[in-house]
Structures are given as C-alpha cells and as structure tokens.
Design a protein that fits this description.
The complex is a heterotrimer of chains A (110), B (655) and C (179). With 655 residues, chain B is mainly alpha-helical. Helix content of chain B is 71%, strand content 3%. Chain B has a two-stranded antiparallel sheet. Chain C has a domain of 84 residues: Four Helix Bundle (Hemerythrin (Met), subunit A). Chain C is globular. Classes of the chains: A mainly alpha (110), B mainly alpha (655), C mainly alpha (179).
C-alpha cells in the first residue's frame, strides 16, 4: 500500500495497527518495569489497546454489528476489577516492604 | 402439572433432604432431621402418585417419560439423563417411595436416641435418590449409576455404627461382594451394547423383538443374560453372593427394612423383569436363574431354622424370598416375580420394623432366646407382626398366599419349570412357615426368658406405630391385586387378576406359558397351604406347647444342626478357598513382581523425571516478569509459526 | 474537505496515544507515568468517539480516565513514591530477550495487518452510521438481551472483587496500623 494512499484513506487497518503498537508498549511495560503500580498501568494500556480494536471492528463490520462495543464493557469491567485487586495486593506488599518492587511478589510463594 | 417438573420433584426431593441433613450432619436434633427427610420422601411419593395416575384411564399412555439432558454422546453410544415410568416401574416406584416414606417415619422414633441422626437421615435420603435413579432411568447406564449409588448408601448405612469393628467389616463385606456382582452387571451391559448398539431399555426391547430364541449355551443373549444375572445375584443376595445380606443386619433396623428387605435387594429382580423380553429369548440363562433361585430359597430357609438373632432370621428369610422371586423369573413368570416383590416389600418391611420395635423395647437385645412373652408388653407390635407372619407363611387371604402360590403354580406349569422346581419351592415354603412360627413363638408367645423385674419393654411412640399399622393393612390386603383366575371365578363379582392385566404387554412371556388344568392348580394350592399350616403347627408345638422338644430334637441330629447353625460354613469356605488364596497370591505378587519389576521400573522413570525437574525448576524461580517473558516468547513463536514467517522471509530474500 | 479533516484527526489522536503510551513505560517517576496513562486514556476516548461509538467513549472517559486513574493516583500518593533509582528490572540477557520477543510480536502483527490490509480489511466504514442516541439504544439492547447473563456475571464479579479487595487490605489491619 503506498504511503500517500494510506495517509489519505484511514481504514480498519490503521486502527488495528495503532492497537497493536499500544499493546506492544503495554507488554514491554509489564516485562521491563519494576514498580508494581506501573506494571498495573501497563496492563491497563494493553486492555485499552484491545478496546480500540473492538470498537474499530464493530464500526467496520459489514452489517453495523454492535457486539464489539458490548465487548468493550466487559473488558472495562475486568480492567477495573483487576486494577482494584492489583492495587490491593500492591498495598499489602508496600505495607510489608515499604517498596512496591515486583520482586517482592516472590515472597507470595508457598 | 407438567410431567418434567413432576419427575424433577420426584428425583430431587430426596437430594434436597440429603443436602439439608448432610450440611448439618453434626446436629443431634432428630426431629428436624427426621421430619425433613420424611417430608422429602413423602413429596417423592406424592409426585410418584401423580405421575402414575397419568397411566390410568381410557386412552392413557403406556408410559410417561422426561428427558433432562444428554449425558453421554460418544460415537454410537447415546445416553440421556431420561426417566420413564411405565407399567413396571410404576409399581416399583410406588413401593419404594411409599414404603420408604413409612420407614423414614419409623426411623424418627427409632433413631431418637442416636448420636448422629442427621447423618443417618442424610444417608437414607441419598439411598432413596439412588434407588429412584435405578428404577426410573430409561437406560442400563443410568440404572447402573443408581445401582452403584444404592450400593454406596447401603455400605454407609450398614457401617453406620462404624466404631464397632464388626459392623464396619459388615459394611465392607457388603460392598466388596456387591462389587463382584457389579462387575458382572457391567459385563452384561457391555455385551448388550456390543450386540445391539444401545443401552436404552425400549430400544433393547425393540431390537430383540426380531430375534429368535437361543437354544445353545453360548448365544450372545444367553451370555448377556448370565452376566446380568451375576449382577442381580450380587445385589439381590443369591447363591453364591448372598453372604453379605445376613451380615448387613449390622445396620440400624429401619435400614434393614428399607434397603435389605423391601427395596434395594429387589433391584436384581426388577432388572430381570425389565429385560424380560431379552431373557425369554435365552431359556438357558433363565434355567440358571431358576435353579439358583430355587436353591437359594431352600438353602436360606433351612439356615433360618436355626438362627437365634431375630434380625438374622429375617435376613435369611429375605434371601429365601428373593430366591422365590428369581425362581419366578427363571420359569418365565415375571409378573409373579413382580407380585411377590411387592407383597414381600410390604410384609418383610413390616416384620423388620416390628423387630426394630422389639429391639428398641428390649434395649438393643437381638437374641430371641432372651425374649418371649412380649405379647402383653407390645400389643401393637405383636398384632402387626402377627399379620406379617400369616402373610409370609401363605395363609389365604393374606398377601403372601397369592404371590407365593402364583410362583409355585408357574414353577410347576410353565414350560420352563417342572416338578423339581415346584418341590424345591414347597420345601422352601414349609421351612419358611416353620422358622417364622418359631420366631413368633420365641419372641411373643412363649414364657418370658428375660428379667422382667429389670427390663420393662413398652411400645414406642406413634411415629413407630403408624408405619407398622399401615404396613400391616397393606400386608393383609396387598394380595388382592393379583387374585388368580381360578379363585376369581368362584368369588362374587368375579374379580380378575388386576396385576396380570396391568403388566400385560410390558413383560414378556415364554412360549406356551400359562396353560394348565384348573384342578391341578387347586390341588397344588391346597398342598402348599396345608404343608405350610402343618409346618407352622409343628413349630407351634415345638416352641410353645412343649418347649423342651427342640433341644431334644437338636440333640438327636447334632451334626445337621451344627451345619445349619453355622450357615453351612459358607463364609468359612469362601475364606479358605477364595479369599485366602487371593490374599496369598497377591502377597506373593507384591513381594516378587511388584518390588522387582514394577517398582524398579517406576523408580527409573521417577529418577529420569526428577533429573529433568531439577534442571527445569530454575526456570520457575518466582520472578513474575520472567514468567511473563515466557508467555511473550511463546506468543511470538506462535505468531511466527502461524504466519509462516520462515517461508515468507525466504520468498522475500530468496526470490 | 471533510475526509481529510477526519484523517487528520485520526493521525493527531493516534500520535498523541502512541506518544503518551510510550511515556507510560519510559517515565521513571510513577506520578508522571500515571499522568501519561490518563493522557492515553483521553486520547483513546477520542479515537473511540471518532469511530462513532459515543457512549463507549463517554464510559471510557468516566471509568478509566476518571475512576481507575483516581485509584492509581491515590495509591501512588499513599505510598509517597519518589523518582525511582532503578525503574527497569535487572538482567541484560533477559532484557534483550524480552525486547526481542515483544518486538517480534509487534512487528509481525503490524506487518501482517498492513500486508493483508487491501485484501481483508475494509477501508470504508459500514453504511449503517447511526446517531449517538440510536447507537446507545442498540448497545443497551445487546447488553440487556443477548449478553444479559455475562452482564450479570460481571456484576457478581465486581461484588466479589470488592469483597476481595477489602479482605486483602485488612490483612494487616488497615493503612494506619503500623505495628
């Protein structure tokens, strides 16, 4: 696809690529950061990337299917739930070690 | 009401009771536990009544059924969780839920002093549910689930007082013996499925309809029939697997009444009746059934002559009566088998509950040598037990007379029967009359042989009296559902044989069945009644009129008495010939094969895995990000594979 | 030219999203990370809105940029975290492997989307463009009819999560207890 063409016609693939890039950033954050809270933020980033593709698919589906948008709600619910539990875990870790390094989760084993 | 809902209520009411009592198993409040359990059984009975009522009337369907979900769908095997009430299972479901409810009610009084009534009632409800599965399932597999389930509940209830080692062992014995039978049952199911490609009752019956009667010993239907009979013999306590039932009396007495007399042990008979169209095509299998049934009837009855434990006497009586039912099945009189099953459920449940009442009154004393003269202390128990006694020895017009004489008549007249089978039946009936009269005499009539100053037997409350009275009434009139034609003809109004009419078309009959001269039927009836009465009179003379005589009589035949008293040493023989060799063989196998080959082999595998594991465990170090990295690597690899990355790269750079 | 302005809007929002997304993982001070994340959320809401999903965009703003972000910032304030000395985890080899595998994922997916764009993905939205109220109505229809079970399950999940979070944070007796 020529560059100029892709600049002029924004289509589904643009949204999907954006979503993929954002997802990759989120994954990198999860893999590389040490701070638990930042890792949680990165997970939010990944979930949001997925949301973009859901909405885009819904918009570009041939018969105006709204199921993608409905799915976004479920993703959001899961994201909120995950953030709540994750932060609760982070606080307990913080209370014990005065730091929120991911490595302290090793102490959860056993 | 909707049939599906009724079926659900019928099946699930005991489950609810089970869960309710199961979750509060520590509670000692027997009133709550008992009323919930009894209520659950009662609800089951009511819904069973409603369902069965749909079968009556003009143009009523032959069966009502409900399918809940597909259970197993594998290739050709299609099994649904579907239930059916047809003319056979209708009888059975009413007996089980009806008698079951009465026995639940009785238990409320009986278990009032027990430590764990909730657990007891939970098990009782569990049993009821499994029994209903067994009866109502429309295919052999569902029946098998119920079959195993009642085995489990029976095990739990026999060993209910498990702190007593002997009782726990009795439960184990029942379980293991049943397992042998169950293996046979399973083999039978496999054979039928292999042969017909289905396990559904109606489909089996439809498919065997086109087959011809097998004359040889090795036909597939004969094989299947014999396998199934092994299962039936295990559950219904026939030779050679009957040994568990007398020991099963270790459980609480209402359990003996419900499971080991009225319902569960009749499952084998019920199964054979259900598959009667298949069995009539395998006359050789039926011959075995008849011979085993007759042998069991006689053998158990003779053992019953010399037992002193009130429940053991009743237990051997049950084994013997089950033998009668199998005798009926074996000569092709499936209707008579069902008939005797029902009447037996009434009078044997009655007698067991009566014995429970006696045991309760005598403070857990079960030895009839230490009873006697209880007539004046326990009037209701005595009166109801009396009805049961007349019913079982076969005095007209009580229930046992009709059903037992029908069996004897068919044993004689059926093309599959003959004089030897009839004679065995009459001997069994004579012994039955003798030991039952002996039981009555030693327990209720003769002089008290316990310390009347210290023991004051008295009737328990209404919860124990009501079931006794209802069952007594049923034992008295239950026989009228199957009045034989020769008697019906001379009675005013000419009542027909309702049961035979009801089962018409649901059960199969062997060819040439049901012919015989009326004179002969009258004559045989007269013979069996007079033999039973004579036998009963003799017993009365022995134990009431002249209590010294039994001892003298026994002394004149010491060897025979010893043999019978020790139950023909069957347990000992089993131990010596079967169990000990198996245990010894297993021990040898363990010491040699297991240690040297199997263990060594597993150790090699184990060490190998351990080696890998110690390397691989460095991967799993608790570092969450490293775990996430594994996921990322895997995802990347999957993507590369899915998109055929190497090939594309070759295309781009190579071409 | 309306088409051009719509395209321009997309590219602006996409650039903003990518930039702020990058900031989330690159900033060493967690507070800045949080702010960058909020920024990302807002621009994603913009993108969603530009796709015509007005209601979802609103929820995105309220739930993510509002509630979830407040949660994050509050916890950060609670911990009183300073600029991190070591923001990234240790290990040169594992770091390389991580970046490489993530790069492969991102690269392969993007390339795959791009290469198959003409054949598979439509470039024009479906003709059924409806008004905001109409689409919200349709969405409600879906949620409360087709997905009613999942919807209720989500409700139950949230309840469980709420209880779980409370239970977790009570393990050592609240944030003030420092015994």
């Amino acid at each position: 696809m020529p560059i100029a063409d892709s600049l002029a016609n924004v289509g589904l693939s643009h949204y999907l690529v954006l979503s993929a890039i954002l997802f990759t950033f989120g994954l990198l954050g999860v893999l590389l950061r040490r701070n638990v809270i930042v890792i949680l933020m990165s997970i939010e980033l990944m979930l949001n990337a997925v949301n973009i593709s859901f909405v885009a698919f819904s918009r570009y589906s041939p018969n105006g299917n709204m199921d993608g948008q409905a799915m976004v709600f479920f993703v959001m619910t899961i994201a909120a739930a995950e953030a709540a539990v994750g932060l609760a875990l982070a606080t307990t870790i913080f209370k014990k070690f005065r730091e929120v390094n991911i490595r302290y989760f090793e102490h959860l084993k056993g | 009401m909707n049939e599906k809902i009724l079926f659900a209520v019928l099946l699930l009411a005991p489950v609810v009771g089970f869960l309710f009592n199961g979750f509060r198993w520590k509670s000692k409040n027997y009133m709550i536990a008992g009323s919930v359990a009894t209520g659950a059984a009662g609800i089951s009975f009511l819904s069973a009544l409603l369902l069965v009522s749909k079968l009556f009337g003009e143009g009523a369907p032959k069966s009502v059924s409900a399918g809940f979900f597909d259970w197993i769908l594998v290739g050709g095997l299609q099994v649904g969780a579907s239930f059916v009430i047809d003319h056979i299972s209708a009888l059975m479901v009413l007996v089980v839920t009806g008698v079951g409810t009465l026995i639940h009610l009785f238990s409320v009084g009986y278990m009032s002093h027990d430590e764990r009534p909730s657990k007891y009632f939970a098990y009782l409800n569990l049993f009821l549910f499994n029994m209903l599965l067994l009866i109502l399932g429309d295919n052999l597999l569902l029946m098998f689930v119920g079959w195993e389930g009642v085995g489990l509940s029976s095990y739990l209830l026999i060993g209910f007082w498990f702190s007593d080692k002997e009782k726990a062992a009795a439960g184990m014995k029942a379980f293991v013996t049943n397992r042998i039978g169950d293996a046979g049952f399973l083999l039978g199911i496999f054979t039928l499925f292999f042969l017909l490609g289905t396990v559904n009752f109606s489909e089996i019956i439809a498919k065997v309809a086109g087959m011809s009667v097998e004359t040889g010993w090795t036909g597939p239907l004969t094989l299947a029939g014999l396998f199934l009979f092994v299962g039936a013999a295990g559950k219904s306590a026939q030779i050679p697997l009957y040994v568990w039932l007398p020991d099963a009396m270790a459980g609480p007495t209402p359990v003996s009444a419900l499971i080991h007399a009225a319902t569960m042990v009749t499952a084998g008979v019920y199964m054979i009746v259900r598959l009667s169209p298949m069995f009539v095509l395998a006359p050789n299998a039926l011959l075995i059934v008849a011979i085993v049934g007759a042998a069991t009837a006689v053998m158990a009855a003779t053992i019953g002559l010399a037992q002193f434990d009130i429940k053991k006497v009743l237990a051997y009586s049950t084994v013997s009566q089950l033998g009668f039912m199998f005798l009926a099945c074996g000569v092709g009189a499936f209707g008579a088998a069902m008939f005797h099953l029902i009447t037996h459920a009434f009078f044997k449940a009655l007698m067991f509950l009566g014995s429970g009442s006696v045991i309760h009154a005598m403070h857990e004393e079960q030895d009839i040598r230490k009873m006697g003269g209880l007539k004046k202390y326990l009037p209701i128990t005595h009166a109801t037990f009396f009805v049961g006694w007349i019913a079982i020895i076969g005095i007209p017009p009580f229930a046992g007379f009709f059903s037992k004489d029908e069996i004897l008549w068919f044993a004689f007249s059926s093309p599959l029967g003959g004089f030897p089978l009839w004679f065995a039946g009459v001997v069994g009936a004579a012994c039955t009359a003798f030991y039952m009269t002996r039981l009555m005499a030693l327990t209720f009539w003769a002089k008290p042989r316990f310390d009347e100053k210290h023991t004051h037997p008295h009737e328990a409350g209404p919860s124990m009296a009501i079931p006794l009275i209802i069952l007594a009434v049923l034992s008295a009139v239950g026989g009228f559902m199957g009045i034989p034609h020769v008697i019906g003809e001379i009675l005013p109004g000419h009542p027909g044989n309702w049961l035979e009419h009801w089962l018409e078309g649901s059960i199969a009959k062997p060819e040439g069945f049901g012919h015989g001269s009326k004179v002969m039927e009258w004559a045989l009836m007269g013979i069996s009644v007079s033999v039973a009465s004579l036998s009963a009179l003799t017993a009365y003379n022995f134990y009431v009129v002249d209590p010294e005589r039994p001892a003298k009589f026994v002394a004149s035949l010491p060897k025979l008495h010893n043999l019978i008293y020790n139950k023909y040493f069957v347990d000992e023989i089993y131990f010596a010939k079967i169990i000990n060799p198996i245990v010894g063989g297993s021990r040898a196998l363990w010491a040699f094969v297991d240690v040297n080959f199997i263990d060594r082999g597993t150790f090699i595998v184990g060490d190998f895995v351990k080696g890998i594991g110690s390397t691989a465990r460095t991967l799993q170090n608790g570092n969450l990000q490293q775990y996430a990295m594994y996921i990322a690597i895997a995802v990347a690899a999957i993507f590369l594979y899915l998109l055929e990355a190497p090939k594309r790269l070759l295309e781009i750079f190579g071409g | 030219m309306p088409v051009l302005s719509e395209n321009l809007l997309f590219f602006i929002l996409a650039g903003l999203t990518i930039f702020s997304g990058l900031m989330v993982i690159l900033q060493t001070n967690p507070i800045f990370c949080a702010l960058a994340l909020a920024m990302t959320m807002i621009s994603i809401a913009g993108i969603i809105a530009s796709l015509g999903a007005w209601f979802v965009a609103g929820v995105q703003l309220i739930v993510y940029a509002g509630a979830v972000m407040v949660l994050f910032v509050m916890v950060l304030m609670l911990f009183d975290l300073k600029d991190e000395v070591r923001a990234f985890s240790r290990g040169l080899v594992s770091g390389f492997v991580k970046i490489a595998s993530v790069g492969i994922i991102g690269g392969v997916v993007t390339a795959a989307i791009w290469m198959s764009a003409e054949t598979v993905f439509p470039t024009t939205p479906s003709g059924l463009q409806v008004s905001a109220t109409q689409s919200t109505k349709q969405l409600a229809d879906l949620l409360f009819k087709k997905y009613i079970f999942s919807f209720e399950a989500m409700g139950a999940l949230l309840l469980i999560i709420a209880i779980g979070a409370v239970a977790l944070s009570r393990i050592q007796g609240g944030t003030h207890a420092d015994r």
